[in-house]
Amino acid sequence: ILNVEQSPQSLHVQEGDSTNFTCSFPSSNFYALHWYRWETAKSPEALFVMTLNGDEKKKGRISATLNTKEGYSYLYIKGSQPEDSATYLCARIHNAGKSTFGDGTTLTVKP
Amino acid sequence: EAQVTQNPRYLITVTGKKLTVTCSQNMNHEYMSWYRQDPGLGLRQIYYSMNVEVTDKGDVPEGYKVSRKEKRNFPLILESPSPNQTSLYFCASSSKTGVRTDTQYFGPGTRLTVL
Q1: Taking Cα atoms as reference points, which of B13, B6, B25, B14 lies closest to residue B104?
Q2: Rounded to an integer, what distance in angstroms lies between the CA atom of residue A94 and that of residue B95?
Q3: For B50-76, what is each residue's pLDDT tens digit?
Q4: List of chain A residues whose C-beta atoms are within 8 Å of the C-beta of residue B100
């Protein structure tokens, strides 16, 4: 198993706060990294696909960066809202369909 | 509508009674996977399939079997379920051509309890 680690495990912020969390992965033989958002009682939904060193992706108030040389990706949420409360998962994609997920960061945004 | 479906959504069974969880996708995806999710842990890949009749073990394959006889279907089989297989199971699919650039599409999940 190639470890993917996410930190922190959980995060509690106030509405309006900006926050960020980390996904760390082995830097060798990098193929792709995916970010997913997972709300309770629902299925994980895709946020970003990161493939190239230095990639920066943005969707509304959420953005992500990728450093494949040092093996990490950051997810940023600007001005958190209660509806951002969810578990955020990153997954290291190997070729041919194999993927390894981190344990996730659970974000709770208090009104 | 593009989707991945799983059945059943909820299942309570007893130790040793064989069961099958079905998974079907209508997006003509080559890649399909099964994951389990346990409290405090992320998704752990059980098995994955690259195409019809091509499957491989993920990180936690013990106690499970899969088959891929048709492109759209990828059933998960528990020949002799045990209580440690109580979990939330997700099926997912993705396209081969976009495997690096396209994400996985997940089914709604199956919550399995083995007594």
Answers
A1: B25
A2: 14
A3: 999 999 999 999 999 999 999 999 999
A4: 31-32, 49, 51, 93, 95
